C-alpha cells in the first residue's frame, strides 16, 4: 500500500470539520500531530487515502468513527491536586457562600469538565471529605464529563501512574490508594464518589441536560478553543449554573476576555467567576 499523506487542502477540510463538531481549533503548528493521528485512523479503517476516509467520517450514521477520532485527537495531561489553591478556595470561601443560601435537603452539585483521566474530580472529592466539615451535613454530587470515551473509561477504572499521584498527600495515599505492579489503584469508595459522563460541550442538545450546578471547574480547556467557541462554552456554563453559582478556570484563562456575563470574585485563595443572582 502506498504511503498515505495529508496535503494542505486535506488538512484545511479536516480542520474546519473538526472545529464545527468539537469547537477545537487545530492551527498549523499542530500539523504533525494531526497528520499522524489522521493517518492512523485512515489505516485502521482500511482506507487508502484521506478523501475516501473523510467521506465515510462525515456520512457514517452511527458517528462511531468520529468518536474514535475525537478520542485520538484530544490531549489529556493532568495529575492529582493540580492548581490546588482553587480547591482551598472551594472549601474555605465558595462552599460557605453556597450553603448559606441552601435549604437543608438541597444537594450541592459540582460539574468538572473536562474530566480527563479523573484526577481533578477525585482530588475535589478528597478535599471535601478531608477538609470540609460540611460534608457530614450536605449531600454533594460530583459530575465529571469529557468528550473522549476512552479517557472516561480510564477515569472510572481509577488506576494511576507514579507521576499522576506525586502531589497526593501521604495520608491520602495510604487511605485511598493501593499500590500494585500495575500502578496506584483508587479504592471503590472514592471511585463511587464521582459520576462520569460523556458530553460534547459544543452540542446544545447534549448540554441541555446539565443544569442546577453550584460550582463548575473548567480548567485548561478553553485554551484549545477560538473566541467563538469560548463564548459558546461560557454561555453553556451560564445556563448550567444556579443563580449565584461559581466557575473556576485555569490559571492562564480569564473570563473577562471572553464574556461579561459573570462577576469577578477575588477570594483570598483564588480569583473565580460568579453568575449574578445571589442578591448581593
Could you estimate the helical fraction of the residues in percent? 40-55%
Distance linking N and C termini: 67 Å
Q: How big is the Rg? A: 20 Å
Sheet with the most strands?
7 strands, mixed
Assembly classification: single chain
Strand order of the main beta sheet, please?
A: 6-2-1-7-8-10-9
The overall strand count is: 10
CATH architecture type of the largest domain: 3-Layer(aba) Sandwich
Topology readout:
Layout: H1 8-22, H2 31-44, H3 50-59, H4 64-73, H5 85-100, E1 108-112, H6 119-131, E2 140-146, H7 149-157, E3 159-160, H8 170-176, E4 177-180, E5 183-186, H9 188-191, E6 194-198, H10 204-207, E7 213-218, H11 227-240, E8 241-249, E9 263-266, E10 271-274
Parallel strand pairs: 1-2, 1-7, 2-6, 7-8
Antiparallel strand pairs: 3-5, 4-5, 8-10, 9-10
Amino acid at each position: 500500500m502506498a504511503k498515505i499523506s495529508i496535503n494542505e487542502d486535506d488538512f484545511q477540510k479536516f480542520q474546519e470539520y473538526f472545529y464545527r463538531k468539537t469547537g477545537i481549533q487545530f492551527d498549523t503548528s499542530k500539523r504533525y500531530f494531526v497528520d499522524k493521528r489522521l493517518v492512523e485512523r485512515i489505516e485502521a479503517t482500511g482506507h487508502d487515502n484521506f478523501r475516501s476516509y473523510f467521506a465515510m467520517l462525515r456520512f457514517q450514521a452511527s458517528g462511531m468513527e468520529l468518536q474514535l477520532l475525537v478520542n485520538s485527537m484530544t490531549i489529556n495531561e493532568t495529575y492529582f491536586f493540580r492548581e490546588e489553591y482553587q480547591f482551598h478556595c472551594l472549601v474555605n470561601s465558595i462552599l460557605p457562600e453556597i450553603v448559606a443560601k441552601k435549604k437543608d435537603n438541597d444537594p450541592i452539585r459540582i460539574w468538572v469538565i473536562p474530566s480527563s483521566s479523573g484526577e481533578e474530580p477525585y482530588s475535589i472529592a478528597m478535599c471535601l471529605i478531608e477538609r470540609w466539615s460540611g460534608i457530614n451535613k450536605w449531600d454533594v454530587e460530583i459530575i465529571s464529563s469529557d468528550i473522549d470515551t476512552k479517557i472516561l473509561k480510564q477515569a472510572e477504572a481509577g488506576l494511576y501512574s507514579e507521576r499522576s499521584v506525586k502531589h497526593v498527600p501521604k495520608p491520602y495515599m495510604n487511605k485511598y490508594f493501593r499500590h500494585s505492579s500495575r500502578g496506584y489503584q483508587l479504592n471503590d469508595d472514592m471511585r463511587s464518589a464521582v459520576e462520569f459522563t460523556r458530553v460534547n460541550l459544543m452540542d446544545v442538545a447534549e448540554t441541555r441536560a446539565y443544569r442546577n450546578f453550584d460550582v463548575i471547574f473548567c480548567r485548561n480547556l478553553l485554551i484549545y478553543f477560538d473566541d467563538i467557541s469560548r463564548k459558546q462554552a461560557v454561555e453553556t456554563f451560564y445556563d448550567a449554573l444556579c443563580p449565584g453559582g461559581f466557575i473556576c478556570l485555569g490559571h492562564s484563562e480569564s473570563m473577562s476576555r471572553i464574556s461579561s456575563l459573570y462577576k469577578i470574585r477575588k477570594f483570598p485563595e483564588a480569583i473565580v467567576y460568579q453568575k449574578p443572582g445571589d442578591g448581593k
